[in-house]
Amino acid sequence: MIGSVAIVVVLFDDYELLDVYGPAELLAGCNVLPAAKGQLKLRFVASGGLARPTNGPATLAEPLDDDTKSECDVLLVPGGMGTRKLQHDQGFLQQLRVLAAEATLVLSVCTGSLLLAAAGLLDGKVATTNKRAFIDIAENWPKVKWQRTARWCTDGKFYSSSGVAAGIDLTHFFLKELFGEKVAKMTAKCAEYVHNDDPGEDPFVHSKTFDLKNPFGKPLQLVVVVYDQFEMWDTFGPLEMFSMANRLNGPAFEVKVVAEDFETKSFGGPWFQCEALASGAEGDIDLLLLPGGIGTLREIYNPVFSKAICAMVAKAQRVMTVCTGSAILASQNLLQNRKVTTNKMSFDLMALFGPADWVPSARWVRDEKFWTSSGVSAGTDLSLALMREVFGADLAEAAAEATEYVWSKDDDGSKDPFAESIPELMLLANQAVATKILNTFPMFGVLRRHPPPKDDQLKTLQNLLAKNGLENFHFGSNKELSDSLQRAVKPEDPFFNTLVRIMTTRCMNQAVYFCTGEVQPALYSHYGLAMERYTHFTSPIRRYADVLVHRLLAASLGIATLPEQLQSKAAISEQCEKINVKHRMAQFASRASADLHTFMFFNKKGEQSAEAIVMRIRRSGMQVNVPRYGIEGVVAMPEEEWEVREDEQFIQSKKEAGRIDIFAHIIVTIQSDNSDFRNRTHIRFERIVTDSEREEYKDVEESRKQVQKEMFPDLLEREAN
């Protein structure tokens, strides 16, 4: 466990936006993870307490003076055009020397290393810097061992990165050293950033040149709307790209950053001076940018803010949202019937705020004038995609090259490397909330536990699999069971692994909600998720327990008082039991609904023939799975024709040489049966399938997905946990 780490970020006029707020985003994001526990203390300092970045709002900071060194464990020096002037400012360079002497680590981004070199701090040390300025800097400070081919370098306590976006990779490396690889990776995942782990892998070592000309006769009006606790990278990543386009002889953007409050605080970062919110709708708006942030949820219910947003959207030629910024528009019904996306971590929650066609697996989505992106870093990709669409591919490539940013270049944003992050992040959120409420209210927390599976049933399955050539099926722990399921593969039968997993699931116990004061701590764990503590905090539309958990969490955070009825073990235990009963009843209703829809499907289609796989031999016949239709059922076998050997799990024909074993493939006939108004589906055995007749797994899967859409047109996707 590390102690508190004070990170001092030095700002100055004309500092580079992404040099600062890319790293700051990762640091602030890491700080809210359970492993970091708020140990990172970010301090932004500037001479006179104010700094103006290139093409961004004025930044309020602590004064850079003699007191700054009193709390400086890590020093972060960004780059920017302002470094050209500061390299000759001996007073500023002396302040850097003092801070560097105090700091345990000194990090520089882009031409921030120029300032360290000018202060004599890098003499004899390995370092790197921005590619576009590399030759000039290397010639002016030859005592430094400059590395051109490097994403970042380390030499003792000095860590330096290449241009702009490379500072984000350097910060990821710093977090990995500080907290470990798992925490660093989760920080990057929360920002939906594809990080580079190799400092020597530098895609920008050979700079490209572009011949760009501004096709517009007048500057374009870019309005950015921020609010208390807005996300830094959401905002300044896109602004960095548009600012760089301006400097590359591309279109000129006049940036107006507006907010309800003149001084507005970012999440985990500094305060900024903004123009009045109402001024955003004054004049033309070529592009309106709405970043995300935890303040989104508050502003959705702010009538002044909402009215101003509606006025600006009506005037804007294009509207761009990053992360949860799309929820602001959705809450005002501005995205109705449009394809949109938002960040992965809070996707289910954001989708509640208004009617829209939410796309969970997209990096970004465009629908007419509305451009919406997924979480945090995806907004920077979206800004380049918009630039490519409106101003041409050369400008987008040039901006990415100049900022040394590796971006997702697919045409429509559909290829999202974080498409699978939603379930993982939801699980981690549930785990973190469980730990928080248990630590605060150990006697009446509401958690969810999943007991280990039924041992006798797993032993039966183990014996069954052994008879079918799978000898190494072990289940001493959830890790052993998981590994066994990974190994349960037959190359000649691609359906085998799926069936084994289904059969294993049948051996599991039911997960239940419980009051922590009524159960021994040794029984708190969730077997299926391999978590010591777990609850249901996410997806409030699907969970009875969420209301209790949210109230407990609010009280544990000190933002609400805990209701009296939630301070009684007996009352909470009674409520948990009611929740468990409701959940079981909902499952029964779901199964009955599935049976009815299956009957309706085959009643409409008529009798169908399909391949099925035997899962179990019972006294009454065979339990089979029909992959093409995604259904199961029991096939009755006439006693006069077949001998059922339940103990040995096979069926023998009495009339001819024929035997049906577990996992055998057979042909069945499926038809609806409405006799006596039962509304059921009947499956009848036809014959055994030969190996040459077996259906292709890929074809069957495609058919099953299509059938499921037709069979359950209104089916809501259920959470697996």
TrEMBL record:
UniProt keywords, alphabetically: Exosome
An MF annotation (GO) of this entry: RNA binding
Domain RNB: 259-559
InterPro entries named among the record's database cross-references: Class_I_gatase-like (IPR029062), DJ-1/PfpI (IPR002818), INH-QAR (IPR052158), NA-bd_OB-fold (IPR012340), RNase_II/R (IPR001900), RNase_II/R_CS (IPR022966), RRP44_S1 (IPR033770)
Any one of the GO CC terms: exosome (RNase complex)
Protein's name according to its UniProt entry: RNB domain-containing protein
Organism: Effrenium voratum
Origin organism lineage: Eukaryota, Sar, Alveolata, Dinophyceae, Suessiales
